Amino acid sequence: MVCETKIVADDPDAIAGNKKDSLIVSSSQMWTSTSDSFERKDVKQREQVLIRDFERGDNAEVRRIFTEGIMERIPNTAFRGLKQQTHTQFIYAVLTVMCFVMTKSFMLTCCTPFILMGARYYYSRRVILNYLDCALHTDMADIEAYYMKPTGSCFWVAVLDGQVVGIVAAQGREDDNTVELRRMSVDSRFRGKGIAKALGRRVLEFAMLNNYSAVVLGTTAVKMAAHKLYESLGFQKVGETENYTLPGMSRSLMERLFFQIRYSRYRLQLHEE
Description:
This protein is α+β, with helices and mostly antiparallel strands. The protein has a domain of 185 residues: Aminopeptidase (3-Layer(aba) Sandwich). 42% of the residues lie in helices and 20% in strands. It has nine helices and eight strands. The chain is elongated, with a radius of gyration of 21 Å. The chain starts with 22 loop residues before the first strand and ends with a strand. GO terms for molecular function: L-aspartate N-acetyltransferase activity. Belongs to the NAT8 family.
């Protein structure tokens, strides 16, 4: 069961306007801090952030931010992701024991976990680079044609002190009257300033303006910070898929052994249909 979530703007002009309007993120459009000192600090940071529509001249910076964000998933998936995969941990432990039984070599047995981790990094890199290549040759190859021209879709950039520091897209789905939040990424040098949350709020406002019934998203993020961000925006997890197949995967035996990724689905219901 999906709970209904209402998005209320303190500023009556915060949700008004055309989908192509620029939006300066202020404290009235974001969350309220429980501490006055932190609130003053956050307001000052958010007043400097401009969320505006994608322009052709942004393309190089957008691709850079997107690429860097995807590349971060290589070590996260290879190493941090293993903590979530108890079944894989058991297999690797068995392989380590088998190595000792077959070779009777303590040195080789001690090296086995490092070899397994090296294999995980290699296959994570290969799969994620293939995924990145697919993205850069599909929607991210022509953002204007894919997101800006179709009705019900849009692409925004976050600008801080004249520099593009974050991106997010919204893609409308007419079949179920939902909009999908896609391609959210923030330059690693500018995280912790509320930029990702500002981008997320922009998608929610866009969905309300265009009378979508819900906002949905899917993520393979390993870091809990990403999941907490979606939950703070009002999203609820509605499903999870283990051993998800990314675009570009071959699903070979070695790939299945050394690359596993979890896909989580979130939904924020704006109003009942």
